[in-house]
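Structure ticket #2291
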Amino acid sequence: MVEFDINAALPVLEPLAVLIIGIALYGIIIFSFYKFLAKRDIFKLDLEKHNGSKHPLLKKAVDVLLYLFEYILLFPIITFVSFAVMAIILLLLSKTSSVEYILLVSMAVVGSVRVASYYNELLAEELAKILPLTLLVLLLADVSSFSVSHTIDAVMSMPSYYLLLAYYLVFAIILEFVMKMLRMVVRMVLRKNNPKAKA
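Resolution: structure written out below.
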């Protein structure tokens, strides 16, 4: 009969428990992140309901201002947070890539997910989760590649890339604006050609 020795089992089970908790937390973060990022309309503030103007021209002008507020002030904050989350995930799991390359890939992933969300939100979800989950698999295959000091150094160097970050942020705003305009044009064309069609 085999005796269970708790003192002998703890050194074996402790790394297993840490790994289970780490993978579960990472999965929860990635799940929440990609579900959020893949939505075509990231937020629905319905700011038009706060427009109390009765005059049609003034009402339209206020609607435009509220729309600009929503997509020029709030959207950059959400994009920057999404981009930062993706960059931190890549920094955590990348062993050799430069910070510039990680920022490029992070912005490319966020941008491609936003473009895909206008075509199909399920496709956008798949794009948003594939890179972080692939990186997790690579990390689990070679845990020795994980370096806390490398990650901390990379995160601390981020402010020195302020110009690059600003370029990416402006690009993301323009990309979202272009996608919204294209969607409006496509919807107008579909309605004109087929009044019952939904876009």
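Closing remark: The mean pLDDT is 79.
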